[in-house]
Give the backbone structure.
Amino acid sequence: MEKKKIIVIDDIEMNRMILKEAFKKEYDVLEAENGAVGLEKIKENQDSLSAVFLDIIMPEMDGFGVLQELNISSLIQKIPVFLITTDATSAVIERAYDYGAVDVIPKPFNIMVIKRRVQNMIEFFEAKRQSDSDIVQIDQVLQMQREDLNQAVGSLIGYICEAIESRSVGESDHVNRVRKMTRALAKEFAFQHPEFGLKDDIIDSIASASVLHDVGKVFVREEILAKATDLPPEEMSEIQVAPTYGAKLLNRVQGIPEPFFTFAKEICRSHMERWDGKGYPDGLKENQIPLSAQLAGLAEAYDVLISTRVYKKAYSHDKAVQMILDGECGTFNPDLIECLKKAAAEFEKIVLDK
């Protein structure tokens, strides 16, 4: 088994020899005669280094310069650094700790004391590294479980929503296309507006949650959904209150993982809201509307236009895009409209691939 390494960075050869002799049985001892060389050797051997002994006063780069660079690279958190100095004043000790050194060892050396202090700290750092590694592995397993759960829940809900949608649309692929279009629109928005921090996992959750946009239709009478004529006010109000009931239904469901659950409720309740406040059910306007609902709402509006419904014919892709740009489906976030222009070709491809 290959020995772990320590490095002694000191411009005085005798100091390097003393520490090398003290630790050579347990460790492969590296040496450096100045801070610049020492820093390079630390970086080259960072995965096998157990400790760094660092003098303060050296040519080219002093000990505090090395500590500063180790802070910048975050190596100070992974490798214990022991400052060795003849100037162990309170000011030097305080500055050393501020820079992240774990201990200050005064010269001349007391080898017995040094070995005990150093070994205790090395064992502590090795235990911490093992703990950190275990945490990472556990987190990876949990993430895989969350992804499996998200996929299972999403698939089940998708089938339910397809069944709901078929009551009024006459086809079952609407929710799947909305999911794909929501993802395409969200990716374009993330590219154009990185300040929102839409990472891929968030985009996937929003897209998956979009399949629930019309779950509230389960509360709408089938004869209303099947009407080919304009609805009277009392029947239209039943349509407009459906998103509220859908969101309340989702609130009663237990075991749906986050952030999928939050996005699903936002989309279900607010995907019919419009930028100018003339949507429903709550009359939200502008960024009062959750971004997830804005994304799914625009994707759904496009898909409704290019689909045949009992009350309308299917429009062409170009016509559907132009109708949205002209505000014939209500107003949308101007930033999303710009994203639609960029994502329009991907929308058309999704339709053609059906």
